[in-house]
Specification:
- By secondary structure, this protein is of the alpha/beta class.
- The chain has 2 domains: 240 residues, 3-Layer(aba) Sandwich (Aldehyde Dehydrogenase, Chain A, domain 1), CATH 3.40.605; 193 residues, 3-Layer(aba) Sandwich (Aldehyde Dehydrogenase, Chain A, domain 2).
- It contains 17 helices and 18 strands.
- The strands form 4 sheets. The chain has a 7-stranded parallel beta sheet, sandwiched between helices.
- Helix 4 packs across helix 8 and helix 16 runs parallel beside helix 17.
- The chain is globular.
- The chain starts with a helix and ends in an 11-residue tail after the last strand.
């Protein structure tokens, strides 16, 4: 009887292990795992990377059901805390709006593709079978921005964990508190569900030096950087495989066939979303002369404030752009009313976007401002609109959009712009997975790797594509090979 009980216990344990349902605190997961300062936070890069490497080696041997359990723990844990995260983020970074952050957080949490997106590719024929599978890199070194810290932690963690990796996350100093809170709670959720610690790790005191050390650490297998050009450049020269999200200056083109009511609504709504801190957001409008006045009128009806005084336009440019040509962080992600108040411009109501006419070489056109300032450049023909849009986008190949009912115009613009994201007749935030209902079933896209070519990243981005050949089979269509 005793032997039968032992056998049943062994079978139960094996069944739990194979199905990924082992309980938290199991010896295989938690024994001898370092705790550092608790819940994935460590004092040094070496300690953090070592802990993540140990966790990843355990994690890589788990079945796919275990990965799904990890991601469900993250979703179930953060789901009830969305408003708190949005408010805490707004309080710390001082950019954007709480409502927009809630939308982006929901999008990252529920629309980031998980392990189901990693189904193998199989080819069979007279030469046998070829199978391609997507397997982990190991420990990935991530760097987050100050503009979207919580969303990036969630999005990157789900993508990378879905691929079987662990993650060292380098927090932006300007968002260190909310980033640490996110990582601590993520570890708590995962540990309670699985007994595994340190799948996502970070430092108690983030710094530029620690990010540089992480980038060159021998146990970091690849890098994923969502941030400014300088840190992306550091990743690209690190000698490691790097996924880098670069700068963007997205133009919205409007030709004379466009549905002007819809174009005005989409552009104003998307430009003003989270006060324009999304790199995908419309940064300038390039419109055909014939419909310019109608577009401006409709944009005003949708909540935009038209600034006509050229001296005030120039004053705002001088006020918001620093001597080195970069936006002043004092104004990045701030309300349109804050910028107008600082410039001494009178207005009524609560405008969400400031619009004004400008030449294509105006600094507010050529600079990625990340604030709700939207210059409007007019051109006589569609060819001029497209040529100007390509020019002001600056060769970033990041994001562009067009509002047109002319299919050849849409096709030609998509080809010529050659951007990682291209949107026709819609708000550009739709390409990040955000929809009119707050979030939808599209893949969330928060790390947009334009410089390195991956575009909108998914779980596949953070896996190695491995090939398996079996020349003697397997095909159901034939037997002799």
């Amino acid at each position: 009887m005793q032997e039968q009980n032992i056998e049943e216990a062994i079978r139960r344990i094996l069944k739990e292990e194979l199905s990924g349902q082992s309980q938290s605190g199991s010896d295989n997961n938690s024994e001898a795992q370092p705790t550092g300062l608790g819940n994935g936070i460590f004092e040094t890069v070496d300690e953090a990377v070592a802990a993540a490497k140990q966790a990843q080696e355990i994690y890589a041997d788990k079945p796919m059901a275990f990965r799904k359990k990890v991601i469900k723990a993250i979703q179930d844990g953060f789901g009830p805390k969305i408003h708190y995260i949005a408010q805490a983020t707004r309080d710390e970074i001082g950019m954007g709006t709480v409502e927009a952050k809630e939308t982006k957080l929901k999008n990252a949490l529920y629309n980031t593709a998980g392990p189901d997106s990693l189904k193998p590719d199989v080819e069979t024929g007279d030469g046998g079978m070829v199978m391609y599978e997507y397997t982990p890199f190991g420990v990935i070194g991530g760097v987050g921005p100050s503009t979207n810290p919580g969303e990036t932690v969630i999005n990157n963690s789900i993508m990378m964990l879905a691929g079987g990796n662990a993650l060292f996350f380098g927090a932006h100093p300007g968002a260190k508190n909310i980033t640490r809170w996110m990582i601590e709670h993520l570890n708590e959720f995962v540990y309670k569900a699985t007994g595994l610690r340190n799948l996502v790790v970070s430092l108690a005191t983030p710094s530029i030096e620690s990010v540089q050390q992480m980038m060159h650490h021998p146990d970091i297998a690849m890098l994923a950087v969502t941030g400014g050009p300088a840190v992306v450049h550091q990743a690209l020269i690190s000698g490691k495989k790097a996924v880098g999200a670069g700068a963007g200056n997205p133009p919205a083109m409007v030709d004379d066939t466009a549905n002007i009511d819809l174009a005005a609504h989409d552009i104003v709504t998307s430009c003003g979303f989270d006060n324009n801190i999304l790199c995908t957001a419309e940064k300038e409008v390039v419109v055909q002369d014939d419909v310019k006045d109608q577009l401006i009128e409709k944009m005003q009806q949708d909540g935009a404030f038209l600034l006509k005084d050229q001296s005030k336009i120039d004053e705002i440019a001088h006020m918001t752009i620093q001597e080195n040509g970069t936006p002043d962080r004092k104004f990045v992600g701030k309300d349109a009313t804050f910028i107008l108040d600082e410039a001494g411009v009178s207005y009524t109501g609560h405008p969400t976007v400031v619009i004004f006419e400008a030449k294509k070489d105006h600094p507010l056109v050529t600079t990625e401002m990340l604030m709700p300032l939207l210059p409007i450049v007019s051109c006589p023909t569609f060819e001029d609109v497209l040529k100007t849009a390509v020019e002001v986008e600056g060769g970033n190949h990041h994001t562009a959009s067009i509002h047109s009912e002319n299919i050849p115009h849409i096709n030609k613009a998509a080809h010529r712009m050659n951007t990682s994201i291209f949107v026709a007749n819609g708000p550009t935030f739709a390409a990040t997975g955000v929809g009119d209902n707050g979030y939808w079933s599209g893949d969330a896209a928060l790390t947009i790797a334009t410089p390195t070519g991956e575009g909108t990243t998914t779980a596949k981005t953070f896996t190695r594509r491995r090939r398996f050949n079996c020349p003697e089979g397997f095909s159901l269509r034939s037997w002799e090979v």
